[in-house]
Amino acid sequence: MITYSYRRAGDDDVDVITDVYNEAVIEGGSTTDLTPVGYGERKAWLDRHRDPYAVFVIGAEDAGGVRRDIGFASISVFYDRPGYDGVCSLAYYIARDARGRGAGAFTMRTLLDEGAARGMRRVCATIFADNAASTGLCERFGFTRYGLMPAAAYDSRGTLHAMSYWYADIGR
């Protein structure tokens, strides 16, 4: 049995955030960054997440009590004009060796709960349309797909993906 937890990310977490993200960049299929990012870029990204926005580190503890950080998640600005206050963009990345065991569902529930607690009324996600795990999570958690852009973005392996756009109402 694995027990998941989360905490607000701080400066000490930039390394794990960078490592998990760069694993996803290299793997392809989940981000439009084409090359790995550096510590400074991820630190600046983390620093931009001021309340009500946030970044969280996802932890896992196995049955033997061994705990490790396995991913991160973010509640980010959707669009920087005041009329969009209360709408945010969600993202998450889970280390490859921790996937398929409930970490994604735990993380999505965390993001939705934190978003509501932070006064968000609507959450949005932009996902490669062929990312079955992430689109499946959106469906499972009641998101509505509101758009599909064919042949929109490349990943690091040079694969051109359609992008799917999702939202869910969570409060107010």
Automatic annotation (TrEMBL):
Pfam families attached to this UniProt entry: Acetyltransf_1 (PF00583)
Keywords attached to this entry: Acyltransferase, Transferase
Acyltransferase listed as a keyword: yes
Lineage: Bacteria, Bacillati, Actinomycetota, Actinomycetes, Bifidobacteriales
PROSITE patterns associated with the record: GNAT
InterPro entries in UniProt: Acyl_CoA_acyltransferase, GNAT_dom
Name of the protein in question: GNAT family acetyltransferase
Keyword check for Metal-binding: no
Domain spans labelled N-acetyltransferase: 4-170
Highest rank taxon of the organism: Bacteria
A GO molecular function held by the record: acyltransferase activity, transferring groups other than amino-acyl groups
